[in-house]
Specification:
Elements (H helix, E strand, L loop, with lengths): L2 E4 L15 E4 L9 E7 L6 H5 L15 H8 L3 E6 L18 H16 L14 E9 L3 H10 L6 E5 L6 H16 L5 E6 L5 H17 L7 E4 L7 H4 L3 E5 L7 H11 L5
Parallel strand pairs: 3-4, 3-5, 5-6, 6-7, 7-9, 8-9
Antiparallel strand pairs: 1-2, 2-4
């Protein structure tokens, strides 16, 4: 199924760069009557077209690729893969306009009619496309932690599932504020999920602190401890544990391989259609 790359978007994170502003892949199982959106934010020194591609990617020398299109197709899910560009091949955590109130919603509202025009399977999204999104999974790798928290807080869309892939370098307090809200929603019976997969090193200490924070939050709301899987030993997660509403787990995977290793598994355990 087709992949579309859009430039010159008014609501891009950084308009007018001359680079691609957004990438959308429409997989073979996409059903416009019932679908979700997977949003993926790449880390430093990368770009949306490269992380969507299979190894070795589109650049020489090679940059890490997440092989996203392959994993989305293999998942069998009815979803749109949506990659907004932030900083193109820079060491920057700046989300630009996507960190502003309603920024994510405005960008999706601009892009979906273009997809509807370009893809027969998505033609019905020309009107009220954003309003028909059933569920959103947002995944952030590495330095995308700031863009992710800003989009979750301010973006204008309900982020039902938020996944950090070796990404919790800073902004710990902002994530705690968000997680307080998510645990409260779990207490009301809503289906939300938060996953933090990390490795030993730069994100480990903050991640352990986050796991302990979630333990206290569950106790405060008198929720079962089993809602959280918190494990600081380096081992691969089982599918049953990834499906829990709250996951903070150390893994042995190399930093550059997180996207390629875990997106398919996160989709397998997701509530996306």
């Amino acid at each position: 199924m087709p992949t579309f790359v859009y430039s010159g978007l008014d609501n891009a994170a950084f308009p007018g760069t001359g680079h691609a502003d957004a990438l959308v892949h429409v997989p073979s199982r996409f059903d416009a009557r019932r679908f979700g959106v997977l949003i993926y934010l790449h880390g430093f020194d990368n770009c949306i077209e490269n992380v969507a591609s299979p190894p070795p990617g589109i650049h020489l020398p090679e940059h890490p690729t997440a092989d996203l299109i392959t994993q989305v197709e293999d998942s069998g899910r009815s979803l749109l893969l949506f990659l907004p560009e932030t900083r193109y091949h820079e060491q920057s955590r700046d989300p630009g306009a996507l960190g502003e109130a309603g920024g994510l919603l405005r960008l999706l509202a601009e892009v979906l009619p273009k997809v509807a025009s370009d893809c027969t399977a998505a033609a019905s999204l020309a009107t009220e496309g954003v309003g028909r999104i059933e569920r959103v999974l947002l995944c952030a790798h590495s330095g995308a932690y700031r863009a992710a928290i800003r989009m979750a807080q301010l973006g204008g869309l309900d982020i039902h599932e938020l996944c950090l892939l070796d990404s919790l370098y800073k902004d710990v307090e902002e994530y705690e504020a968000l997680l307080k809200h998510k645990v409260a929603r779990l207490a009301r019976g809503e289906k939300h999920r938060f996953v933090n997969l990390y490795r030993a090193g730069g994100t480990a200490a903050h991640s352990v602190t986050q796991g302990e924070f979630l333990q206290r939050q569950l106790k405060q709301h008198e929720l079962p401890e089993s809602l959280l899987w918190f494990d600081d030993s380096a081992s691969e997660p089982e599918a049953v544990d990834l499906a829990r509403p709250l996951v903070v787990k150390r893994v042995p995977t190399e930093h550059s391989d997180f996207g390629r290793t875990y997106i398919g598994r996160l989709l397998e355990s997701s509530e996306l259609p």
